[in-house]
Amino acid sequence: MTVPGPASSDDPQARDLPLDAHLHTDRSADSDVPIDVYAAAAVERRIAELAITDHIDFDPHLPNHAPDAAERERLVRDAAERWGPLGVTIRHGLEVTYESHRETEIREHLASHAYDFVIGSVHIGPDSPYHARRVAAWVVGRPLAEVLAPYFDEVRAAAASGLFDSLGHLDFVKRYLWPHVRPADLAGRMDLYDPILRALVESGTGLEVNTSGLRQAPGETYPAPGVVARFHELGGQRVSAGSDAHRADWFAHGLEAGYRAVADAGYDRLAFRRGTERVEIPLPARFGLA
């Protein structure tokens, strides 16, 4: 029997990788995927380790406010016991919606719960200037720095907080700015990214290469490979990679390209946390740096 190799261009779901560090199950309001579906896909595609990073919101008006943290942990730990003997390691993670004015609540929650790996991300809420009903009016007539300021200021605060293992989808706002602002408009503006990247370096927080943008209008990772390379130039030590899947067919989607962005930036390993232990996971040899 022929053993399938890495995913080809017509199979965007990756194979033979050590980690997908960003996955949402039916315990997130915007996903309906049972954890066992991801685990079975990991067995089939030989993705060795998964981080289940369901959402938590601290704004009571948002859909993932006040989840049952104990029940979430039980489901993940039980799945880890079921699937470990089959070759898939499953970690109990979290994706926090970061809002600077709620930082105390976030800090208290993280201090009182045991997560293996925590991503901090800035999302687009119903009152955001980037919401579909108002984004065009927000963009028109404003210079790019001003357009991005509300989002990038919050992202920089998340990076500086030191609360998270990794900063999720740094420039996810590209999804909402399309087509008014395109990736090419941002490609040469490292001056806008540098304050965030420097805050990550100073706080020791990792940078996530999030591959969901490859299946969305921007058509590139969050952030793009050039930003990952700039993080390396500035002394960034820690990078992670995740598909940010919310559907079964998004599992490991684009993850090969995400790993390639990590390798091309000059990294030969991913940064991860397993409980209290920070670990480094070498990239597979096919990326040329392992």
Question: What do these coordinates show?
Answer:
The chain has about 290 residues and is α/β, with parallel strands linked by helices. Helix content is about 35%, strand content about 15%. Strands 1, 2, 3, 4, 5, 6, 7 and 8 form an eight-stranded parallel β-sheet that branches. The longest helix is centred in the middle third of the chain and has 18 residues, at about 145-160. The model is unreliable at about 1-10 (pLDDT under 50).
Topology:
Layout: E1 20-23, H1 35-45, E2 49-52, E3 55-56, H2 69-83, E4 89-97, H3 103-112, E5 117-121, H4 135-139, H5 144-161, E6 166-167, H6 174-177, H7 183-187, H8 190-203, E7 206-210, H9 225-233, E8 239-242, H10 255-264, E9 269-274, E10 277-282
Parallel strand pairs: 1-2, 2-4, 3-4, 4-5, 5-6, 6-7, 7-8
Antiparallel strand pairs: 9-10
Helix pairs in contact: 1-2, 5-8, 9-10
Summary of the model, kept short:
This protein has 290 residues and is α/β, with parallel strands linked by helices. It has helices at 35-45, 69-83, 103-112, 135-139, 144-161, 174-177, 183-187, 190-203, 225-233, 255-264; strands at 20-23, 49-52, 55-56, 89-97, 117-121, 166-167, 206-210, 239-242, 269-274, 277-282.
